[in-house]
Amino acid sequence: METLFTTDKTRKLIPIIKAFIETNLYPLEKPETLNGNFSAIEPTLKKLREKVKEMDLWGLALPESLGGKGLTLCEFGQISEILASSPFGHFVFNSQAPDIGNTELLHKHANKELNKTYLDPLSKGEIRSCFSMTEPAYAGSNPTRMGTTAVKDGDDYVINGHKWFTSSADGAAFAIVMAVTNPDAAPHKRASQILVPLDTPGYEFVRNIPIMGHTGDSWASHAEVKYHNVRVPQSNLIGNEGEGFLLAQERLGPGRIHHCMRFIGIAERSFDLMCRYAVNREIKDGVTLADQQSIQNFIAESRVEIDACRLMVLSTATKIDKEGSKAARAEISGIKFFTANMMLRVIDRAIQTHGALGMTNDIILSYWYAHERASRIYDGADEVHKVSLAKQILKPYRNA
Amino acid sequence: METLFTTDKTRKLIPIIKAFIETNLYPLEKPETLNGNFSAIEPTLKKLREKVKEMDLWGLALPESLGGKGLTLCEFGQISEILASSPFGHFVFNSQAPDIGNTELLHKHANKELNKTYLDPLSKGEIRSCFSMTEPAYAGSNPTRMGTTAVKDGDDYVINGHKWFTSSADGAAFAIVMAVTNPDAAPHKRASQILVPLDTPGYEFVRNIPIMGHTGDSWASHAEVKYHNVRVPQSNLIGNEGEGFLLAQERLGPGRIHHCMRFIGIAERSFDLMCRYAVNREIKDGVTLADQQSIQNFIAESRVEIDACRLMVLSTATKIDKEGSKAARAEISGIKFFTANMMLRVIDRAIQTHGALGMTNDIILSYWYAHERASRIYDGADEVHKVSLAKQILKPYRNA
Amino acid sequence: METLFTTDKTRKLIPIIKAFIETNLYPLEKPETLNGNFSAIEPTLKKLREKVKEMDLWGLALPESLGGKGLTLCEFGQISEILASSPFGHFVFNSQAPDIGNTELLHKHANKELNKTYLDPLSKGEIRSCFSMTEPAYAGSNPTRMGTTAVKDGDDYVINGHKWFTSSADGAAFAIVMAVTNPDAAPHKRASQILVPLDTPGYEFVRNIPIMGHTGDSWASHAEVKYHNVRVPQSNLIGNEGEGFLLAQERLGPGRIHHCMRFIGIAERSFDLMCRYAVNREIKDGVTLADQQSIQNFIAESRVEIDACRLMVLSTATKIDKEGSKAARAEISGIKFFTANMMLRVIDRAIQTHGALGMTNDIILSYWYAHERASRIYDGADEVHKVSLAKQILKPYRNA
Amino acid sequence: METLFTTDKTRKLIPIIKAFIETNLYPLEKPETLNGNFSAIEPTLKKLREKVKEMDLWGLALPESLGGKGLTLCEFGQISEILASSPFGHFVFNSQAPDIGNTELLHKHANKELNKTYLDPLSKGEIRSCFSMTEPAYAGSNPTRMGTTAVKDGDDYVINGHKWFTSSADGAAFAIVMAVTNPDAAPHKRASQILVPLDTPGYEFVRNIPIMGHTGDSWASHAEVKYHNVRVPQSNLIGNEGEGFLLAQERLGPGRIHHCMRFIGIAERSFDLMCRYAVNREIKDGVTLADQQSIQNFIAESRVEIDACRLMVLSTATKIDKEGSKAARAEISGIKFFTANMMLRVIDRAIQTHGALGMTNDIILSYWYAHERASRIYDGADEVHKVSLAKQILKPYRNA
């Protein structure tokens, strides 16, 4: 379907990727896969990764210099929606968080040696990585409060701290750790990002945190970790000292587009499941759920809400492509809470339409219902984004 | 501000029109004007119409052959938003409903003589018109049920019926009347549209209906009328017999864009008033409403909701421009309820922010609160559009 | 219908009052009455007041010493719901705000002479009164900020200030004016309540404020007034100096019950109109709105929401009856926003069900839609009550 | 706290039970317990059951003849709320569904022999039971559509069918099976309830269905089962043939009160967790979440919504106690959807307040978020109850 955002590349790529996912990934949606350990399905997914490489579809989000296709953020966003229709889509195409963000970060801000040692195998999918920022002791709504420190000692940094929601740490080769290096600087200039190989002594993997009843493992996990006098060379610094938040902010622009398009992909698939079920579920002879106004209301409201979000996210992506993340800061705050809430409403309606079946893992909806609830929390809770957006809007009024 | 939909024409026209409205129309927003009779302000507005003509801004929605600027629907939509920031904007630019719709209808479907007698002075703003469809005895949700009949007698039609919400009939020169001419045809092919000069014997102007406490007059009114053996020549038929619904449907595509962009213009102005008031209203020393999270939430939510609606409506307009109304039928249903509800939420939040002042006619919000409630009813109630949209969505699923 | 709150008195009174209102007041609901000046209908209502006296139903909210029936707050609350089913109910039974509150205030806190001169004719319905607190220059969310002052001069107070929403000032005999008498005291102890006869020199009636397009007059109006060196004897003080907020607070407990039960009465009547219309409005042969799930959803949701509010308000009234207003402070905050929002939702659904008719003044719903929007603002905006309730809830947690 | 519904029995029992649960059950809320198999925690719970017996608190919902305390439904409802504050509360007090319903059913409608064999050990907690009604092939919204049949053969019934959501079948001693015995009767008179011991040949336990990622076992499970020519004596019939729906309906009145009070208990506990966390979670020095208006709004709204639901449910229970389930049919429909939606909103706000922690199983909220989503589906989906309630309300209007 042609839209305002269709380009030659999306026109060509989307149907191929869509077909690949429907054929290869939808059949993997079984209770044992969704509820089980990721490591059990990983061999299967790795074989599919090879297939993706053979089809020359690898690393869609990668910069051209790393073998990517040179897609704009808006183009990749449209593809990301398709990948998200399966919980395995991004992984199989090596476009999964947090590796996609770390790839971009290293590419732009790491020195040559780090790039050779870490970025190269990461972009090939040979290793995985994680991003270690959130701390249990400090509210995420104020990221400048942070307990983890990196103190210079000789040529090294010595890192101490306690983190959680270091997603995908289980099995990762390295972490990008956010730590306070300049405690006396202004709040936003205190922290730096430092690459820490996870076989470094002093790194403690505490546990994969059980989330909504599911502990998970490997890529599909959220770890609690500790850093006890973890020593890495100062050359492992990404960017400059004190730029931790600046780089995090820079990462967030494209990151939000990725997240939001993923939300839209999930919503769109849930919508499709809802419609399919509605026309097939008979409630009396010759009458299906699709004939019920309450269900029709679900469908009509979901349709416009999904479409509105997609337009919002892709027009924000276009703005980032043209003017950069900073110019689109307000839009980036807005789409996050707007799209996450939409996704959760659509999933909820799809479950309600499915009745008892919707609660089960015989269908994917319950998986998303549980796990995607986090979308209103991570990467800025709704309440934080609303305040942030309002302040940006009100600033010129205050100065008027 | 450049957007995805900006063109050379909108880039040039919008700032001029915006400035005109802010300078000339905002100052007219006084209690006596908003609550009083339109006829009292009409002389002032007529002078401004002359000014508009002098500035070569007349008839922005007119086809080029009638002196218009050849704007696409999407271009006019963007201008319509600006016009809607004042309740007098569309009138002063001769782009007001129902004349704008009647103009297009006559232009496309009326014979030469009708065009000469009626379309010509209408497009010049010398006369006004109305559209007479809704009937008190029949639910609007099913337009094929209609009591008004037009029976052939010699060369004439003889029309009998009872209509209401024949908006702007007070002072209009003619009505386009929807009447059943072919009672034995399929439901959607029973009615025709017939032009009836309002000085024809048998036409009874019953009253301007009091709406939300306001009776109004002239253009700003909603009449109840009766047709008692009203006789007009058969050459007053618009299009062909039995095409009444087809023509109404055709009218609705652009008509919805006009309505929805008007809703967006009202929402945007309400949003601006909310922000202005929030930064200025002190609640304790040095603390204003703008510092309150509840108000910040209003502002952030309103911002994304307005922007999402605008993208939806303008992308629908673009689709109509490219592929015609029929291809965009689902989108046209969707934007109507989505945008009307958004507007009412934004007005409501703006009133709540203004507190007691918001209830008064010292500010325009209460006027919109009362009068724009109709937006969820006319031109298809929310409930009707949702069912209609859902059915279109579900059709391919049923046939699968 | 027997409920948890039925008493012998309500069992006897309610059916009589209900029948009186349906017979005598419902027929007065005409566009010209609802949109017109209250003074035009006042003679009719005054005759009905005589009838009420003859039936020994006068002053249901009065204390027994003033000829009342000794109803508990919970009992009067139940009757207040019935009175509210007509916009004229409270007035005809002399239970209308603000007189009902002023009556109670004078009865408890004014000296004998004031009581003789003002309370006596007020309780007999011979004069009317008003309460002059809100000021345009200060946000109502923080009542301790106030510009009006009362300065002692000899035996008098000299009052200067600017008020608005001094409801029913038009035609009132006196106002209870809130003014700062002790500017150096703690914020909550600065103001006093002083009775000001409205024929006192220096009192300026600026205007009746147009609200939602309706200016109104007499009892049904909201005035802007000014006090220019208005001089009254110090014996006109109500209670003690500095007790202005204390008395206002005391007034609020019962006042909120009155308001909330009025909201419930309006919601219940709107609900009844919605159900009546739904079963009668045909949308195709033999199918009415009552057969549509969207309308059924409106009805089911409204039913439980109204019932829940009534239980909340009457159980709060019971608590006030037993333990006093102070003990029920949290509940009093809670019911205000909960009930006002419920009422507005029910009115909105009833209008939507009525379609175009719902917008007109041919039915009372549009009157309530416009005028009752204020319920979320006056007497504490939603946002203020939520913060206040939350703080009360959180206090013991903070201290834990 | 004294309420309108407090009695001598609740005044005495509630504090004891509350203390027992807080001391003995809250400490069991650990990730491994909540996510693990119920059978792992069962031995611990069984010891606590003995303690409950020793404290003479066993079988609070049992009729006196079975050793219960003769509590009214309203009294037990208030206790049920307390039990629900732990997911193990009802089980430890032997008041858990579906056994509580089966106990009442057998007590009222089974013959002596069945009572001796099954009711006696069931009321002592020696065996467990299940209720086998829902079928995957038929929509629950229309319970008269059912595929399971029980055909007479000699002195036996021979049962064939496929059921799911036969909750707690895993480890149960018997099921009450709903099966069509009279296929030619009116739809509501076709089915009967038959007791089937689960060691009967032909009974197939297919699986415990994975729900929201959790398969569970023992009491905490939802089974899919099949009946292949399962043969039981006709004396296993409960009540009379064709009374299946009548008995199910009778069961539903008290059953809904049980469910709804459970929802309220969960909401109240979630509310308490939200308040505790809000005052303790610092977002900057000296400022906690409790100081944020967005969180205060969550708290204020939750408070009134919980209280309103409790009043609704307990006043419905009182009506059932006084007038029977049939008289309260409308209320019973209303409270179900009203209370379930309230609970889910409160849980959701509590999670949002907890941020990332709320997603984890370190706190109980995520468990309820996932598992209690079913409350809007089982025992009548929201949409079904709304239609049912509306029809009851509209009936007298239609007949007017």
Largest sheet of chain A: 4 strands, mixed
- Which structural class best describes the helix and strand composition of chain A? alpha+beta
SS summary, helix count of chain A: 13
| Assembly status | homotetramer
Query: What is the arithmetic mean of pLDDT of chain A?
Result: 95
Distance between termini of chain A?
45 Å
**Number of spatially distinct domains of chain A:** 3
Family (chains A, B, C, D): Belongs to the acyl-CoA dehydrogenase family.
GO molecular function (chains A, B, C, D): acyl-CoA dehydrogenase activity; flavin adenine dinucleotide binding
Cofactor (chains A, B, C, D): FAD
Organism (chains A, B, C, D): Arcticibacterium luteifluviistationis
Structure description:
The structure is a homotetramer of 400-residue chains. Chain A is of the alpha+beta class and 400 residues long. The first copy, chain A, is 50% helix and 15% strand. The first copy, chain A, folds into 3 domains: 96 residues, Butyryl-Coa Dehydrogenase, subunit A, domain 1 (Orthogonal Bundle), CATH 1.10.540.10; 110 residues, Beta Barrel (Butyryl-CoA Dehydrogenase, subunit A, domain 2); 155 residues, Butyryl-CoA Dehydrogenase, subunit A, domain 3 (Up-down Bundle), CATH 1.20.140. The first copy, chain A, is built from 13 helices and 10 strands. In chain A, the strands form 3 sheets. Chain A has a 4-stranded mixed sheet with strand order 1-4-5-8. In chain A, strands 2-3-7-6 form a 4-stranded antiparallel sheet, with no helix packed on it. In chain A, helix 1 packs parallel to helix 4, helix 4 crosses helix 8 and helix 6 runs antiparallel to helix 7. The radius of gyration of chain A is 22 Å and the shape is globular. The first copy, chain A, starts with 7 loop residues before the first helix and ends with a helix. Chains in contact: A-B, A-C, A-D, B-C, B-D, C-D. Chains A, B, C, D: Homodimer. Chains A, B, C, D: Pfam families: Acyl-CoA_dh_1, Acyl-CoA_dh_M, Acyl-CoA_dh_N. Chains A, B, C, D: Keywords: FAD, Flavoprotein, Oxidoreductase. Chains A, B, C, D: GO terms for molecular function: acyl-CoA dehydrogenase activity; flavin adenine dinucleotide binding.
